[in-house]
Amino acid sequence: MTFKFAANLDDLNPDEPYATTIESEQIALYLVDGEVYATHNVCTHQFALLSDGYLEDGCIECPLHQGRFDVKTGAALCAPASAPVKIYKVQVEDGAVMVEL
Ligand code: FES
Question: How many angstroms is it from 93 CA to the middle of ligand 1?
Fold first, then answer.
């Protein structure tokens, strides 16, 4: 497991998900209260990109059926999402957002 470059911190906006792909892994980044969090970008219910969803109060709402996940823990917060989404460790170094894969 090593940390890989995911994005420049300057490219992230508060409460606006950011999609990226690292080694064919689809990842969504979130800037919440000055901290960066990362989840897998595909909803665990059906196929939808969480980065196309609505981020509020540290939760991402899936754009397809409005399942919600806590971006810090990956926990599914409401139906129809029930399985947690994978989360990744994040480090910010010199303005670079690094994600552990
Ligand atoms: S695909 Fe995300 S809640 Fe259904």
Answer: 33
Q: How many domains does the chain have?
A: 1
CATH number, domain with residue 26:
2.102.10.10
Distance CA 60, CA 47 (A): 15
Whole-number Å distance, alpha carbon 75 to ligand 1 midpoint, is 14
Instruction: Indicate if ligand 1 lies below 6 Å from the C-beta of 8.
Output: no
53 lines ligand 1 (CB under 6 A): no
Q: Give residue 63's identity as a one-letter amino acid code.
A: P
Q: Measuring CA to CA, which residue among 88, 72, 74 is closest to residue 32?
A: 72
Mean pLDDT by 10 residues, the chain (101 residues): 96 94 96 97 98 97 98 97 98 97 93
